[in-house]
Write a structure and sequence with these properties.
Radius of gyration of chain A: 19 Å
Order of helices and strands of chain A: HHHHHHHHHH
Number of helices of chain A: 10
CATH class of the largest domain in chain A: Mainly Alpha
Largest interface: C-D, 63 and 64 residues
Strand content of chain A: under 5%
Oligomer: homotetramer
Largest sheet of chain A: none
CATH architecture of the largest domain in chain A: Orthogonal Bundle
Number of domains of chain A: 2
Structural class of chain A: mainly alpha
Shape of chain A: elongated
Chain lengths: 215, 215, 215, 215
DNA sequence: GATGAATGAGAATTCATTCAT
DNA sequence: CATGAATGAATTCTCATTCAT
């Protein structure tokens, strides 16, 4: 029973990601999500309060997965710059690997005023927390500068990643997002590293490819 | 007639900013905006195609004003770093000076799927264009690095500013946004400058004040 | 404009009586009422707050008409017993003449919890007020007793009339309701005791006819 | 098993009276009634066809109890007037003693269209039957008049009692209902005419107390 | 008999938008 | 140009009821 119940919740979440990505949040019908999950419309409301709750739950659940997966990976790196690079790469590849989820996170989710007004504390704070850990670790190790507030650095990193992914989504997801990793890390680390850019030695990879709107 | 007409258009836009900020985009009633502008509901449709067009027009019009005002100011600076600093300061102070507008731009506007899907080319591209000009100028002058794509740098700058302002809005606009200017510029320029951070000599100003969620 | 507006309100009320009587309050569709009034569904909501408000407005409007019509007639009688007889006759004939309205008042209206909880002060109080005037007048003239509270008498009269009409409605409106007038007046004025109080001299009319469930 | 089963049925009925009185028929949730009876929602449907059946069963069961209890008491009186007085007193005190039941009978029950359309033959007919027996007995004994139809008299008695109790419920059950007994009996037996028919000798008791809306 | 998770029908209502005046 | 009364499309969500366990 437990299992079947958890299973249903997940089926609804998966269906929601697909339908939200395909139709957009407002056009998406709850009945359509239910059908795609193989359930009756009313059943959705046994697991989620309403349509917006469903959208936000998608974000929360997936973000939690991301955060724990990312953290496990990140902590295998001993070098602060590598940790940052690891995060950036996973962030970009996470979305590149799941276009539906990318559309949900970068576009549809923003149409929830509850989300935009940061009425959702969980997921985003969790993610910002992970970034901040990396920042604090880098400072402790002497790899990242300490004169600028850690919060500001955290938001610079998140803001940059978010904007880059959004631009990729908007431009039709046509170019290779992950290939921007090195350039991004270089930009960010050279900014937050105390000395010049040679601390983090990374060759600057190829651009995202043809049509890269970020060029 | 011309004047009165332009006047009405402006009155509607001003009313819209207030009502959108106060009620949020979806709760905002067109009839309420009309009333606040001293007009009948139908009249709004003589000037704007629909409610979303009104929201986006607010963005376009205000952004155009911003861009031309910012550009005039920016171009008075001869030094690339100063130009960047000027932009950052104006961006932050522009929103700090008009909380209603800030709420509109950072929260309500995102609820327009047309905006989020970048169906709006004008305003945002204009603003990104202004940032890019500064970046290109800095590169030409040898103050900003050339190994990383200018587009990426542009998005780093915009993404960071946008995230910082969003965070300020969400946290209740309680701290001083403008006072973050120097730290932000330092972060950005030290990242994008070819050599170490001493190119742009700026003292790191005070933090945003108590309750600054960016710390 | 005024006239057309008033006209629409009336058209809606008339349509509502018909639809409520035909379908019952809950089965009645607002869209059906609108259609029967030759209007769009939304228009109903320009004149009435919601479906229940429509039902209650039917009651209020019609009761006000009844009360002013009844009062005009009643006051032409100089004798208290005649006044009472006049009221009873008009009450019964009012419903007998309009079966749809009878169904609305005796059945559908009771399904509004707002009405049943006496959330509606206007109409019913108005009608009870009219009955009470007759009672007070009769007491002043020495025709009605003073040892029993006027309120109780008022409710005896109203309760009896209401129950008699309800019974008639429920039994299919098959017998002649008005013909019960004289018996009712006699009962009310003289009670069920054996000797006819000859104060109010009225022959006892025929029964309501075949199938009269009140026999 | 039998006993436990009957017990559950009763627990459901008791819970229903409380919930209907507290929430009103429509707002009342079957699951809430079940919970209050210490059972699962589905179990209610082993004992009752549906929610309306539950409401009507409350009425039927309680009315049957009333009728047999009232009849036993009434028949101990040998005098027709005393029988009537006994009925009136028991009717009033029955409701006064159980405010939840009063709310159910006078308000919620009327919201059942099946009840209002007299789709329920049992309980009400039973009660009307009891009243009628008293009327017929009074006629046989020469205490009640024969010129008026017994049915009409029955309905006068019931309508008056019903209206008086309804008014008491609506006004918040604040005054003493039972103390109206004597006045009511006097009114019914002797009418509203001026001279007290001394047939039924009963002192006119005190009014219902302060705030009595029947005054 | 008892359970309670799942069902799915069903319509009131809002409000952006129109267009006759 | 301006009005504002009228329109009508469009869908979430509830909760009584069922039935597999």
């Amino acid at each position: 029973m437990r299992v079947k119940t958890a299973d249903k919740r997940l089926r609804i979440l998966d269906a929601a990601v697909r339908v939200f990505a395909r139709e957009g949040f407002f056009k998406a019908r709850v009945s359509q999500i239910a059908e795609e999950a193989g359930l009756a419309p009313g059943t959705v409301y046994l697991y989620f309060k309403n349509k917006e709750d469903l959208l936000i739950s998608v974000f929360e659940v997936r973000t939690e997965e991301f955060v724990s997966r990312f953290r496990a990976e990140v902590e295998q790196q001993r070098d602060p710059c590598s940790r940052l690079a690891c995060l950036v790469r996973m962030h970009l590849s996470g979305f590149q690997a799941d276009p539906d989820l990318a559309a949900c996170f970068q576009v549809e989710l923003r149409q929830s005023s509850r989300f935009m007004r940061r009425g959702v504390k969980g997921g985003l704070q969790l993610y910002l927390g992970l970034i901040r850990e990396i920042v604090e670790f880098g400072r402790k190790e002497g790899a990242f500068r300490k004169e600028v507030s850690a919060g500001l650095i955290t938001h610079l990193i998140f803001g940059t990643l978010d904007e880059v992914v959004s631009t990729w989504v908007m431009s039709g997801m046509k170019y290779n997002l992950v290939s921007l990793t090195d350039q991004l890390v270089e930009l960010i680390t050279s900014g937050i590293g105390p000395k010049a850019s040679l601390l983090c030695e990374r060759g600057l990879g190829a651009e995202g490819g043809p049509g890269n709107t970020l060029n």
